[in-house]
Amino acid sequence: MSVTETAGAKDLTGELQDALINRLGRDCFRMWFGQITQCRRAGRDVIVDVAAQFALDRIGSRYMGDLRQAVADICGEGVGVSLQLAASKPEPAAAETAVQADPAETTSTDSAAVDDADDPPKRAAAPRRRARSEPPVDNVQPLLQVSSFQTTGSDDPLPARRRRVASWDQIVVGKSNKLAATAARMICDTPGSASPLFLWGTHGTGKTQLMDVVATELRRRHRLRRVISMTAEEFTNDFIGSVTGSGLPGFRRRYRDVDALLIDEVQFLPGKRATSREMLYTIDSIVRAGKQLVFAADRPPMEIPGLGQDLAGRMAGGMVCSMTPLDHEMRTQMLQQLCEAEDLGIDHQMLADIAGNVCGDGRVVSGIACRLKALVSMHDEPVTYDQITEILSDLISIGSSSYGFADIQTAVCNTMGLPKDALQSKGQSRNVSQARMLAMYLAREHTGATYGDIGKYFGQRSHSAVIAATRRIAGDVEKGKAFSIGNRNIPAKQVLESVQNMLRSG
């Protein structure tokens, strides 16, 4: 091997080590990946030699996805990765040490017991005594000798909860997500230019998909090694594991010394005082360093109950972008894109008709494409529209609305940040009164129920009160008046569209 090749291998060794430590933590890395002796090319595969059978089995069953992801982050697409027991290496004594708790195995079921680890001083366990053979935390040495690393793009290295998106080509941009997509492209071009970026919207609007693209772009285009993408629940579980096991200093180094931190499902944080406090300090540290932060949740940070003004203010301190359910044009484009990728040969007008009768949840559109693929494989001739509507009967609605009073009530309360039973109460505050009138207006538009039935459901209101409410909302929308939601005034038309989008998304 030439001097240049040797230097390249050393660089890749350090990058791979950093990537694995960022994903799994130092303790987990040391325990399992410390048994790897070398990595070598064999045709179109990279073979990883592991000194101990126990470690090999553990990596293969639990950490193979993380290993592939770390390699992909560094080298992009290419050949596969496989494990092999090192032929001439004796199994180190470290593999025979007593069983230790693996921080990566802390599950969400522990949160009930520890979450008010929420006073770390009370919950923290006594410091674990380091074994003589264990190196200091700050001196983890490169253990992998890498020659030429790549992985296949066909293997999906991310956890099953999300599908990896490799490029912008798979993102459908339209009216509902144009601002969010523009902001994401901006930080992909110049990391840190808008930090934090906060994406919010109901389920199925593409928040997680857009975050995956951002993470991929930061790793591949800018060669950023420390890009962490996770959910708020995973952040919480790692924090709890650190409080009770490996220690907070290592946790803080892991999340504050990063190039970019992306956290999804922020609405999971309220009620976890210590975790929220740690998140706040983490945000401060990353922002001061000029690094990139991206968050996502089902509503704006200032409207997440129990999040706290300090934390919500920091999350809203960069750019906040809403993402609404996919409109008809976006659903059509997405469905056509998915069907073309599978070469299903279904007429575009037929796909447009289908897209016009489904909700705006991107996951539902993806599920429809999967069913269409199965339908096409069942027949030797082109499928008909009747066959399609039959197989999709539970996902599409043609010519009728399936909304009920309860659906409308839930959508209005979620949009306006009210308790679910507020619209059926006797409350007369301005925000409750406006929300109730909006719900009555939508009930009249979508259900065809009588004024009397609508009034009876929404707090025993009279027939005339419902008529007045529907006229009032129609006038507010036409004149461009605003609704009061939290501390903001939002145009009535925009609120109405948000509720209708939420209804369409299910």
List keywords for this structure.
nucleotide-binding, Rossmann fold, disordered N terminus, five-stranded parallel β-sheet, GMP Synthetase, Chain A, domain 3, 10 strands, 506 residues, 4 domains
Describe this structure in words.
- The structure is a single chain.
- The chain is an alpha/beta fold.
- It has 4 domains: 1-92 and 141-153, GMP Synthetase, Chain A, domain 3, CATH 3.30.300.180; 168-322, P-loop containing nucleotide triphosphate hydrolases (Rossmann fold, 3-Layer(aba) Sandwich); 328-391; 405-504, Chromosomal Replication Initiator Protein Dnaa, Chain: A, CATH 1.10.1750.
- It contains 20 helices and 10 strands.
- The protein has helices at 3-24, 26-32, 53-75, 111-114, 120-123, 178-189, 207-221, 232-246, 248-256, 273-288, 309-315, 328-341, 348-355, 362-378, 385-391, 405-416, 430-446, 451-457, 463-479, 492-504, and strands at 36-42, 45-50, 80-85, 197-200, 227-231, 260-264, 292-297, 319-322, 482-485, 488-491.
- The strands form 3 sheets. A 5-stranded parallel beta sheet has the order 5-6-7-4-8, with helices on both faces. The chain has a 3-stranded mixed beta sheet with strand order 1-2-3, with helices on one face. It has a two-stranded antiparallel sheet with strand order 9-10.
- Helix 10 (273-288) links the parallel strand 6 (260-264) and strand 7 (292-297).
- Helix 1 packs across helix 3.
- The protein is globular and about 85 Å long.
- 40% of the residues are buried.
